[in-house]
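fyi for ur records
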Amino acid sequence: MGRIGNLGLALTTRLVTVPPVGSLPPGHMVDLSGRGTTFVTDSGAPRGDRPEAPPVFLLHALACTGVLTWYPSLPALSKRYRTITFDQRWHGRGIRSPHFDLDDLADDVVAVADACSVDRFVVAGYSMGSLVAQLVARRHPDRVAGLVLGASTMRFRRGAAEPLAARAVSARLRLMAERKLRGAPFGTPLADISDANRWALAQFRSTSTA
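which gave:
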């Protein structure tokens, strides 16, 4: 990480301490039939008394990864449900595509479900993941058995004058971000989970700041 990185980690650890990582579900890269590849974790069938419960797809927040957003909840959820996380486009080890569009992210969820041989599932999203979850339910209602939304909203605009301004600004930001993303560096997630803060920082850095 280097001296500056270690110093930054030490200072950050004094202010922020993340929960211990514990054990994580096994993860691997999955090919999504022409859409690209992404990193998926799958807890497998629950060991509890609810084998009939639908699998739960956990969608992460902006600038995070699947396991970074959800790892504190995975042990409890995995006792009752088959829980699946994955890195969404341009996050962590997710798909690298020419453009970043929430509709594509929603379709990626179904592509991951297909790759995992899952028909119907509950989709739970936090922050950006909640927006993607709503689009999954709208675009693929036959696949969604339930919807759980955290830190969410249904709209971004309030007045009649805002839509045009929002579209103009977002179009400009999209061009700038996509240009930077194509050449931006990405970090490497750590396999060692003994130091939770160091592991979490590596997860965070695996998404480009662009």
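The longest helix spans residues 162-183. thats all i got for now
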